[in-house]
Amino acid sequence: MSNKNTALAQPIKIGKRTAKNRFVIQPMECADASASGGFSERSLERYRNLFEGDAGVIVFESITMQYDSRARNEQLSLQPENKENIKEWEKFIKDMKKINPDPLLIVQLNHSGEVSGSQFSKRVCVKPLHGFGGEVIDEDYVDNTIDLFVKSSKILYDLGADGVDLKFCHGYFGSQILRPYNDRNWKYGPTWEKRSRFAFDMVEKVRKLVNDDNFIVGSKVSMWEGFPGGQGCAGPDTGIIDLTESIDLCKGLEARGANFILESTGNPSVTMELHMPERGKPDDVYLHFTMAKIIKENVGPDVVVMGGAYSVLNNGKNFLKAVQPEWNSLFHWGNYNIEHGYADMIALGRQSLADPKLPKKYLADKEDEINWCVACDKCVELLIRQENVGCTVYNRPYTDLIRKVREEKGKLRFKVTGMD
Ligand SMILES: Cc1cc2nc3c(=O)[nH]c(=O)nc-3n(C[C@H](O)[C@H](O)[C@H](O)COP(=O)(O)O)c2cc1C
Ligand code: SF4
């Protein structure tokens, strides 16, 4: 059977728009912006490759709109008051649509909060968390942050982007407000009603300002952050899983007009392996499948659920046990989960760095030409070290870069120490 007849190759409606197939490119920060936070040749090259790769949806990496509080020194930014920056975005969107008008371009908006890099920017926090901290923010700060997300969504809409991903995951600002650990008595806590106000008000305001159903709005959500008080925990001081709030978040976003939920679990600064299943412990991939299924069961059929964390599966050369060899691959589980209604689309993170053209190759039955991610996580090491990021296995400049960095600074044991 040609791959064109598989579930992964079928189109799907997202709101009023149509994605040509079921592949989503995950937002992947590569810390390679120009000195002013705009597009460098390296960042442009990455997106040219992705647009040539024919995925149904491309979620543009996490961008900062408050350049003075950012996670990466060379993070791409949208600067609403900077005309030059806005012009760069306009040109970028036009150029990418010229390369390939089909992929839907959704931009991930983010504020780093307590994981902003304190060496080059200002770290702020909702409530100091051990090992993170920063200046504690007030209600006005949160109100202004919501406004910034809303204003930036409108700018992106005017420039021709197809949608936005309002980031509520991975321990960034959205997580910091939503999680039970935010037990401050204020407009944005401690009750779920108050904590969820940040997300719900934001979506409502985006929908109101961008008064066009063709614009896609959705969120990447961490269902369970995996440490006491994190998203998806039963309270501010327990790590016990209770998905009541995470499910209510997805349902509440839907009620306010969200078109998709991009599943995630974990927090890269605290529970790295949970967030991106690693080579030596790939089994958490099943937890991600389960979380996507839980989201599917709780939202209506019009919300597209994008399942995450598929990269570790690759073409079956992984350490998953008790699996028939012919089942043990990304394509098998992608098709299986879509056919069984456990997800609508599958999202590719590290795999999209290893081979940005995987969807095109799959659709053309050229699977033997795919560069498979081996989940070595050297790209992650580059990110943590604030270097430009790329696949060190298949992209020579990054192979040279990681070698050089390790020669100069030694190997990084980040799986033990966390990301910051
Ligand atoms: C280098 C790198 C950069 C990432 N940047 C982002 C980002 O900008 N936004 C985000 O939501 N997740 C980001 N992630 C997480 C991925 O999008 C994805 O959720 C995670 O890697 C699990 O998917 P995978 O197993 O397919 O890699 C990043 C991951 C890596 C390795
Ligand atoms: S560096 Fe390793 S983990 Fe990262 S994309 Fe390449 S093969 Fe995958």
Explain what the structure shows.
There is one protein chain. With 420 residues, the chain is of the alpha/beta class. It has one domain (3-417): TIM Barrel (Alpha-Beta Barrel), CATH 3.20.20. The chain is built from 15 helices and 14 strands. Strands 3-4-5-8-9-12-13-14 form an eight-stranded parallel β-barrel, surrounded by four helices. Strands 1-2 form a two-stranded antiparallel ribbon. Strands 6-7 form a two-stranded parallel sheet. The longest helix is centred in the middle third of the chain and has 21 residues, at 139-159. The termini are far apart. The structure holds flavin mononucleotide (FMN) and iron/sulfur cluster. Iron/sulfur cluster (SF4) binds next to helix 11 and helix 13.
Structural class: alpha/beta
Query: How much strand?
Result: 5-15%
CATH superfamily: Aldolase class I
- The coarse overall form would be globular
Count of DSSP E strands?
A: 14
Largest sheet: 8 strands, parallel, barrel
Helix content: 25-40%
User: How many separate domains?
Assistant: 1
Task: Furnish the topology, listing elements before pairings.
Layout (H helix, E strand, L loop, with lengths): L11 E3 L2 E3 L3 E3 L15 H12 L4 E8 L18 H17 L4 E7 L13 E2 L9 E2 L2 H21 L3 E4 L6 H6 L13 H4 L1 H13 L6 E7 L10 E3 L2 E4 L2 H12 L4 E5 L7 H4 L8 H15 L5 E4 L22 H10 L5 E4 L1 H5 L3 H6 L14 H7 L11 H14 L4 H4 L3
Parallel strand pairs: 3-4, 3-14, 4-5, 5-8, 6-7, 8-9, 9-12, 12-13, 13-14
Antiparallel strand pairs: 1-2, 10-11
Helix pairs in contact: 1-2, 3-6
Bound molecules: flavin mononucleotide and iron/sulfur cluster.
Iron/sulfur cluster binds next to helix 11 and helix 13.
